Amino acid sequence: MTKMNKEMLKGSTGTLILTLLSKEALYGYELIKQLEQRSGGVFALKEGTLYPILHTMETEQWVEAYWIEHGGRKRKYYRITKEGLKQLDLKKKEWHVFKTSVDSVLGEGGPA
């Protein structure tokens, strides 16, 4: 596996988190593990990276947090909001334009 430049990952991390939360509510460790698993290990976030992103998303009202006690342990879960779904749709559209443009420049996407 090729090690990814952290700067390349920065712009897409929020979109990936919102995508996972659009499928189901998750707590932080689950988010980290799912990102890592679904990306084949490319997205291996640390808690110190994930939680500031989630807190920003809470402030923007893209996600909301709630606590669930399971087996005597309390876990903070995150779920996407209606505003978060709108934001995710915008981010996916932006990603499509970006990816198509980069592929065209690199010669991967056919003629521009």
Total beta-strand segments: 3
**What is the ordering of alpha helices and beta strands?**
HEHHEEH
Mind describing the biggest β-sheet? 3 strands, antiparallel
What is the overall shape? globular
Overall SS class: alpha+beta
What is the distance, rounded to the nearest whole angstrom, between the alpha carbons of the first and last residues? 30 Å
Q: Helix coverage percent of residues? A: 55-70%
Count of alpha/pi helices: 4
Instruction: Give the averaged pLDDT, no decimals.
Output: 90
pLDDT < 50 stretches: none
Radius of gyration: 16 Å
Order of strands across the biggest sheet?
1-3-2
Strand content: 15-25%
Oligomer: single chain
Description of the molecule:
It is a single chain. The protein contains four helices and three strands; from the N terminus they run H-E-H-H-E-E-H. It has 112 residues and is an alpha+beta fold. Helix 1 packs across helix 4 (82-106). The model has no long low-confidence stretch (mean pLDDT 90). A hairpin with a 2-residue loop joins strand 2 (63-70) and strand 3 (73-80). It has a three-stranded antiparallel sheet. It is globular and about 55 Å long. It has helices at residues 6-23, 28-38, 47-59, 82-106, and strands at residues 26-27, 63-70, 73-80.
What is the structure about, briefly put?
Helix content is 60%, strand content 16%.
